[in-house]
Specification:
With 338 residues, this protein is of the alpha+beta class. The protein folds into two domains: 147 residues, Nucleotidyltransferase, domain 5 (2-Layer Sandwich); 164 residues, ATPase, nucleotide binding domain (Nucleotidyltransferase, domain 5, 2-Layer Sandwich), CATH 3.30.420. Helices cover 36% and strands 29% of the residues. Bound molecules: adenosine-5'-triphosphate and magnesium ion. Magnesium ion (MG) binds next to loops.
């Protein structure tokens, strides 16, 4: 029997599977499309994502996770199963799997996630908490008796944690992340410019025009939408300042959550973080100027991990190597099927 170890990051926005040395071998949006007439899944991942807002009535395009919580258990399970099967292909392999699940999921959802991996042929399933995986994927040595802090800003949640000796010492999670930023941007243009924009337009504006540290007033981008005054299609020039203003409250909620984690962290470990810095991971870490913003707020150097979107997936895979040493945040939840 060949051995295959897979790491799976089940995120609100993306599901990533890594193998080998933590290389991503599948990276798909967490979306699945279901035909209500035939009761069959017709697409998943990128193909289903492209159907959003464009599917006929009988096809439900479902995002089974919202704000770091599984909102559709059956579809989440099916999506995980399909992704694993896509990776395994026709090979006769029962992989060992480390899965990173959102921090807020319940025991029932946990069980469902594990069952879906087992139904796709997993031999053993381990669960790992997102911040532990994020730190491992960011290349941090979390086994030493030093405090390390990570802020993982995903699509649904921002998870903050301090680890030492392979375990989580203090943590917090807020539902302010990529999706909330998009909603705030949509609200900002509706309220201030009487312009209705779609979620994908907000996402594009966030990626192209965000700058949280010293945003410029110069109009550097253009967005399209519908005027709330005339009801007609309209275009609007936007600046870094617009996007920064739109999401500042969300960013400040994350800053407040980081503050509470500092307050719960023993002073020796706070000292370590002061010396070493705060690492940010997840897609939200790519927001321009966020590292500087956090550095400025706490007077502690904040830096963006290498390939922040892939950190958690990489970390899930790397966790195999250190699984005996990890404390909380890594548990074996299913027994071998063979
Ligand atoms: N360059 C960028 N600038 C700002 N945000 C970005 C950028 N690239 C991606 N994002 C955002 O990152 C988010 C996805 O990040 P990630 O894949 O880490 O989330 P996730 O793991 O699926 O979600 P969660 O961890 O909350 O369950 C999306 O909201 C996306 O808009
Ligand atoms: Mg994530």
């Amino acid at each position: 029997m060949s051995v295959l170890d897979l790491g799976i990051d089940l995120g609100t926005a993306n599901i990533i599977i890594s193998a080998g040395r933590g290389v991503a071998i599948l990276n798909e949006p967490t979306v699945i499309a279901f035909d209500k007439n035939t009761e069959r899944v017709v697409a998943f991942g990128r193909e289903a994502y492209n159907m959003i807002g464009r599917a006929p009535e009988h096809i439900a395009v479902i995002k089974p996770l919202k704000d770091g919580v599984i909102t559709n258990n059956d579809m989440a399970q099916e999506l995980i199963r399909l992704c694993i099967l896509k990776v395994i292909g026709k090979r006769l392999i029962n992989p060992r799997i480390v899965m990173c699940v959102p921090s807020n999921i319940t025991a029932v959802e946990r069980k469902a996630v594990v069952e879906s991996a087992v139904s796709a042929g997993a031999r053993t399933v381990y669960l790992i908490e997102e911040p532990v995986a994020a730190l491992l994927g960011a290349g941090e040595d979390i086994m030493k008796p030093f405090g390390r802090m990570v802020v993982d800003i995903g699509g649904g949640t921002s998870d903050i944690a301090v680890t030492s000796l392979g375990g989580i010492v203090a943590a917090n999670s807020v539902k302010k992340a990529g999706n909330a930023f998009n909603a705030s941007i949509q609200r900002y243009f509706a309220e201030n410019y009487k312009m209705l924009i779609g979620e994908r337009t907000a996402e594009d504006a966030k990626i192209s025009t965000a700058n949280l540290f010293w945003p410029s007033n110069e109009k550097t981008g253009v967005i399209s939408g519908r005027s709330l005054i005339t009801g007609m299609p309209a275009k609007l020039e936007i600046s870094e300042y617009d996007i920064c203003t739109a999401i500042t409250e969300d960013i400040d909620a994350i800053v407040a959550a980081i503050r509470t984690v500092f307050e719960k962290t023993p002073p020796e470990l706070v000292g370590d973080i002061f010396d070493h810095g705060i690492v940010i991971t997840g897609g939200g870490a790519l927001l321009r100027g966020l590292d500087m913003y956090i550095t400025h707020e706490f007077g502690v150097k904040c830096y963006v991990a290498n390939d922040p979107l892939g950190c958690v997936a990489r970390g899930t895979h790397l966790a195999f190597k250190v699984r005996d040493k990890l404390r909380n945040g890594f548990e074996k939840v299913s027994v071998s099927k063979i």
